[in-house]
């Protein structure tokens, strides 16, 4: 057997060097969507915490929102696009399977011959991508990695679906991961349960949709594009019973306890899930808790970087603070890690 040489020189520590976000221009308050779902502003606020969300306009694409967020992340990190060795982009709402959005984003940012790929892990996507990026940096395989979480979930929304129409939203968040003097990204606690895909999923694939369109054309009937569907109660129960363990696992792996935390940034799924986790984890009142869902809705893979940005921008937490991140959702996939919060642009 030939001996392979490992050319990569490992580095000891990785950290998040900078953070940027993109919030779509169009703000959609509850009042704009309640009639189509026979709901009310009060019901939505009480049951989910959401007051408004941003829905992207046609020019605010997965690529353009990613590029805007990435530019700010690079500025905050003091890193030039040319210094980035890899782009890892998490999304579940890119409507083309190829090329990867990551490759297009890398080129639009002026990168040349940069490794780039997309990952799909639902609302856990950003934390999965962050774990991958930290490992790429620590192994020496890449020095600086751009991690992006981005969604245009409004493209997958049936605006008459009472269970989804008020929840999902659009946006992008990006971070630069690179070498750090001390560890800034703890080991990830992650998992999935593909036997429970019916809890959140796209209701049909595109081949089924095209067959439906052809049949509708032949018969004069109607067809419906693929939409995201969710059994909210099932996901809610899973979140408030299972995810405490994931949080404790992430803390254990980082060698910390809840008392060491300055901030908690869970996926912005439902403010009641956030509140339940704060209670079961026994987080001290001094811990700043991200509640970006109020103005941003649930942006799936983009929600954690967007919520981190909101915490830092508001001054509730600051760069260098110790934060527990927790992504969870479709697949039933989850991923959590403790990080030091980055500077924002
Ligand atoms: O990002 C991926 C992860 N996603 C999540 O974590 C989402 C988790 N799930 C949830 O956030 C919640 O389940 C929802 C916010 C989606 C729904 O809240 P809920 O408290 O679980 O509502 P429910 O489905 O149990 O419905 C309670 C009541 C029902 O009426 P009755 O039977 O009690 O008379 C529903 O018909 O609320 C009614 N209802 C609504 N009323 C007004 C359901 N949807 C609506 C609505 N507006 N949109």
TrEMBL record:
<feature type="region of interest" description="ACP-binding">
    <location>
        <begin position="268"/>
        <end position="272"/>
    </location>
</feature>
<dbReference type="InterPro" id="IPR004655">
    <property type="entry name" value="FabH"/>
</dbReference>
<protein>
    <recommendedName>
        <fullName>Beta-ketoacyl-[acyl-carrier-protein] synthase III</fullName>
        <ecNumber>2.3.1.180</ecNumber>
    </recommendedName>
</protein>
<keyword id="KW-0444">Lipid biosynthesis</keyword>
<dbReference type="InterPro" id="IPR016039">
    <property type="entry name" value="Thiolase-like"/>
</dbReference>
<dbReference type="InterPro" id="IPR013747">
    <property type="entry name" value="ACP_syn_III_C"/>
</dbReference>
<comment type="subunit">
    <text>Homodimer.</text>
</comment>
<keyword id="KW-0808">Transferase</keyword>
<feature type="domain" description="Beta-ketoacyl-[acyl-carrier-protein] synthase III C-terminal">
    <location>
        <begin position="251"/>
        <end position="340"/>
    </location>
</feature>
<dbReference type="GO" id="GO:0006633">
    <property type="term" value="P:fatty acid biosynthetic process"/>
</dbReference>
<keyword id="KW-0443">Lipid metabolism</keyword>
<comment type="similarity">
    <text>Belongs to the thiolase-like superfamily. FabH family.</text>
</comment>
<feature type="active site">
    <location>
        <position position="298"/>
    </location>
</feature>
<dbReference type="GO" id="GO:0033818">
    <property type="term" value="F:beta-ketoacyl-acyl-carrier-protein synthase III activity"/>
</dbReference>
<feature type="active site">
    <location>
        <position position="267"/>
    </location>
</feature>
<dbReference type="GO" id="GO:0004315">
    <property type="term" value="F:3-oxoacyl-[acyl-carrier-protein] synthase activity"/>
</dbReference>
<keyword id="KW-0275">Fatty acid biosynthesis</keyword>
<dbReference type="Pfam" id="PF08541">
    <property type="entry name" value="ACP_syn_III_C"/>
</dbReference>
<dbReference type="GO" id="GO:0005737">
    <property type="term" value="C:cytoplasm"/>
</dbReference>
<keyword id="KW-0963">Cytoplasm</keyword>
<keyword id="KW-0511">Multifunctional enzyme</keyword>
<comment type="function">
    <text>Catalyzes the condensation reaction of fatty acid synthesis by the addition to an acyl acceptor of two carbons from malonyl-ACP. Catalyzes the first condensation reaction which initiates fatty acid synthesis and may therefore play a role in governing the total rate of fatty acid production. Possesses both acetoacetyl-ACP synthase and acetyl transacylase activities. Its substrate specificity determines the biosynthesis of branched-chain and/or straight-chain of fatty acids.</text>
</comment>
<dbReference type="InterPro" id="IPR013751">
    <property type="entry name" value="ACP_syn_III_N"/>
</dbReference>
<comment type="pathway">
    <text>Lipid metabolism; fatty acid biosynthesis.</text>
</comment>
<dbReference type="Pfam" id="PF08545">
    <property type="entry name" value="ACP_syn_III"/>
</dbReference>
<feature type="active site">
    <location>
        <position position="123"/>
    </location>
</feature>
<keyword id="KW-0276">Fatty acid metabolism</keyword>
<feature type="domain" description="Beta-ketoacyl-[acyl-carrier-protein] synthase III N-terminal">
    <location>
        <begin position="117"/>
        <end position="194"/>
    </location>
</feature>
<keyword id="KW-0012">Acyltransferase</keyword>
């Amino acid at each position: 057997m030939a001996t392979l040489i490992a050319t990569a020189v490992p580095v000891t520590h990785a950290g998040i060097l900078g953070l940027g976000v993109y919030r779509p221009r169009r703000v959609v308050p509850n009042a704009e969507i309640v009639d189509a779902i026979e709901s009310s502003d009060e019901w939505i606020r009480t049951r989910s915490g959401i007051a408004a969300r941003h829905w992207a306009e046609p020019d605010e694409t997965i690529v353009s929102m990613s590029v805007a967020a990435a530019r700010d992340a690079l500025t905050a990190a003091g890193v030039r696009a040319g210094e980035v060795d890899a782009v890892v982009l998490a999304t579940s709402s890119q409507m083309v399977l190829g090329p990867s959005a990551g490759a297009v984003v890398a080129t639009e940012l002026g990168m040349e011959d940069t490794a780039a790929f997309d990952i799909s892990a639902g609302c856990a996507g950003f934390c999965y991508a962050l774990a991958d990026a930290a490992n790429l940096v620590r192994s020496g395989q890449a020095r600086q990695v751009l991690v992006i979480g981005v969604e245009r979930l409004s493209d997958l929304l049936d605006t008459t679906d009472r269970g989804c129409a008020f929840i999902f939203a659009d946006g992008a968040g990006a971070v630069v991961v690179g070498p750090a003097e001390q560890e800034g990204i703890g080991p990830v606690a992650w998992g999935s349960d593909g036997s429970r895909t019916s809890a959140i999923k796209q209701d049909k694939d595109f081949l089924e949709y095209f067959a439906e369109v052809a049949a509708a054309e032949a018969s004069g009937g109607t067809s419906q594009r693929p939409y995201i569907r969710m059994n909210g109660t099932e996901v809610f129960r899973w979140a408030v019973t299972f995810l405490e363990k994931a949080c404790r696992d992430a803390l254990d792996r980082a060698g910390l306890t809840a008392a060491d935390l300055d901030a908690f940034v869970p996926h912005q799924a439902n403010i009641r899930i956030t509140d339940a986790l704060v209670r079961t984890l026994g987080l001290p009142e001094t811990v700043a808790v991200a509640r970006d869902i109020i103005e941003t809705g649930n942006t799936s893979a983009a929600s954690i970087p967007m919520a981190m940005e909101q915490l830092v921008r508001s001054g509730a937490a600051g760069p260098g603070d110790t934060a527990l991140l927790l992504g969870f959702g479709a697949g039933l996939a989850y991923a959590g890690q403790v990080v030091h919060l980055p500077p924002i642009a």
